[in-house]
Amino acid sequence: MSKIAIIGGIGPERPDYLMNLKQIAVDTPFGEPYPVIYSGFIDGKEVIHLSRPQGGYDHPSLKINHKANLYALKQQDCTCILASSTCRSLQEEICPGEIIIPDQFIDLTTQSFSGFYEDLKPGEGIYKPMREPFSCELCDHLIEAAIVQGITVHTKGVVLTIDGPRFSSRAESNLYRTWGADVINRFTAPEVILANELGISYAALALCTGYDAWRSLEEGSGADDDKAVPEENLDKIIQMLRYVIGKIE
Fold it and tell me: What is the CATH number of the domain that holds 86?
């Protein structure tokens, strides 16, 4: 049977949806996961919940120990990961409050997040295929969950990940659009890369909080929207995750 992990971004970073909640103390060869890992149950199934820092504002993405976080999920025998996050839109048709299920990524982060095997067994590093980085099965479940519940969802797209906490310049934002990127965020690429190295199926649910800098300030959104929009959409994100958990065997 599969063991499910949820990585919570802004919105479902709190594991309030789980029953019999308990905190798990985990230590990895890469340090301790941050900020905390929980175990709990939803509809009778055990779920491991990894909270990202609250919004990432008090703990910038550059400082998140992604290797420790993902390796800790491996140590808990997790076989699949559902990751929720926020994003900003690089395309007109992806509107604030809508959800996108990415199927490809572009990694512009400046840290090297790959290399579990090289770190643990120097000289035995391997090249992991990344042609299809997201689990088609998990993505299909997320898409179905949105459709069944009448939630506007974009069924595929390219997520571009940059270092935080700053936003893009207008020139950068327009450049990303020419590359075919659909949304931009700060977490997805490192997580999906590491999950693939560890052999854990991974899919992401990204909630659009506003348009990126390619649109004028009047048409775009500010940092306040990055907190307000997730709170307004928290219930539907939890509903989607609950639906998918029920589908996974």
Answer: 3.40.50.1580
Judged against a pLDDT cut of 50, whether residue 55 lies above it is answered with: no
Higher pLDDT, 127 or 205: 205
Number of domains forming the structure of the chain = 1
Cis amide linkage into residue 12, ω under 30° from 0: no
- On the CB side of 227, CA atoms within 13 Å amount to 6
Residue 56 pLDDT: 43
Print the domain residue range for 234.
4-247
Only one residue has tokens 């076989």, namely: 79
pLDDT exceeds 90 at position 5: yes
- CA distance readout (Å), 18 to 42, 154, 245: 5, 27, 12
Q: What pLDDT digit, counting tens, does each position of 168-190 carry?
A: 999 999 999 999 999 999 999 99
Task: Kindly state the greatest CA–CA separation across the chain.
Answer: 53
Nearest to 208 by CA among 96, 112, 121: 96
